[in-house]
Amino acid sequence: MSLLDVSCLDLSPSLVAASATYIARYILQTTHPTVTFEQCWPQDLQIRSPYKTYQSLVNGIEILAKLIESYFSGNCSKEFDILFKRYEHEQLLKASLLCQQQRSLIQNLVG
Q1: Would you say 57 and 22 are in contact if contact means Cβ atoms under 8 Å apart?
Q2: pLDDT truncated to tens, each residue of the chain (111 aa)?
Q3: Most buried pick, 9, 58, 81, 102, via CB within 10 A?
Q4: Phi-psi region of 46 (alpha: psi -120 to 50; beta: other; left: phi over 0)
Q5: Contact 27, 98 (CB under 8 A)
Q6: Is the Cβ–Cβ distance between 79 and 4 less than 8 Å?
Q7: Is 92 helix (H, G, I), strand (E, B) or coil?
């Protein structure tokens, strides 16, 4: 998605990857009523990446969460629609459907 949107031009590839990883881990933490930074970005990731705090990730997280939210709001390009439909398939673990099911969590990340 970040390759299709101009709002991501200023983001480094490592920040895009780290932010996407954070968002994925965040929406998978559905069993916990409150999700902490350490649950989504454990010590091992903090050590192995240049992103040590939520503040170092927040810009990328917010931009990517806005992209996902814009898709669900119907404010997106046809390319986004194609991308989301591709990730609805069973072979890709229905990743886009999980995003839709966890939309309220994604909205929390928009800021």
Answers
A1: yes
A2: 887 778 888 999 999 999 999 999 998 886 666 889 999 999 999 999 999 999 999 999 999 999 999 888 888 777 877 777 887 877 766 777 777 888 888 888 897
A3: 102
A4: alpha
A5: yes
A6: yes
A7: helix
Tokens of 107: 């909205």
Sorted by sequence, the CB contacts under 8 Å of residue 31 that are 6+ apart come out as: none
Integer CA distances (angstroms), 48 to 14, 16, 18, in order:
12, 16, 11
Joined together, the tokens standing for residue 2 give 């970040």
The CA-atom distances, in angstroms, between 94 and each of 1, 23, 90, 99 are: 16, 16, 5, 9
Q: How many Å apart are CA 1 and CA 20, to the nearest integer?
A: 10
